[in-house]
Design goal:
Layout (H helix, E strand, L loop, with lengths): L5 E6 L4 H11 L3 E3 L11 E4 L6 E6 L11 E5 L3 H10 L4 E2 L8 E7 L5 E7 L6 H21 L1
Parallel strand pairs: 1-4, 5-8
Antiparallel strand pairs: 2-3, 3-4, 6-7, 7-8
Length: 149
């Protein structure tokens, strides 16, 4: 089994406090102590609510490209509260181009132009089990077709 352990994101050197202000201050993530082996490299790490799954920021001279759409997604318990905090901090919110069943979400660029998706997984309404079963069956059929090729 594979499990995501961390996501590494770059930021311009000298901007660690900007990273701390957005991810720690606005989004409320808890900063972690960076291991002593890399403590002198200017890294900033944040914990998530899931033990062992972390968000790492690493200084790099190449700045994020605001034209790109690659991003990472942070799951929140209360999307309305996250939206309020982001708007209060005066960051522009971008609504998703498409809706995904069971995932209320929006996008925001951090102060250094990294794209972040915030999502709340909503409860499954009546009939949701049937939809989940259809999706699982479709995935099985797709894997079978791929094996035949």
């Amino acid at each position: 089994m594979v499990r995501l352990q961390h996501v590494g994101v770059t930021f311009p050197p000298g901007q660690a406090d900007t990273i701390r202000g957005f991810y720690g201050g606005v989004l409320g993530l808890t900063e972690m102590t960076v291991p002593p082996e890399v403590a002198d490299q200017g890294w900033v790490w944040f914990a998530t609510r899931d033990a062992g799954i972390e968000l790492h920021f690493i200084p790099d001279d190449l700045p994020p490209d605001p034209r790109r759409r690659h991003h990472f997604c942070l799951q929140v318990d209360d999307l309305a509260d996250a939206r309020r905090r982001v708007e209060t901090a005066r960051f522009a919110i971008t609504e998703p181009g498409s809706q995904i069943y069971g995932r209320e979400r929006f996008f925001v660029r951090d102060p250094l132009d990294n794209l972040v998706e915030l999502v709340e997984l909503t409860s499954t309404p009546a009939g949701g089990a049937e939809l989940a079963e259809r999706r699982a069956s479709a995935a099985v059929r797709a894997r079978r077709r791929a094996r035949r090729r």
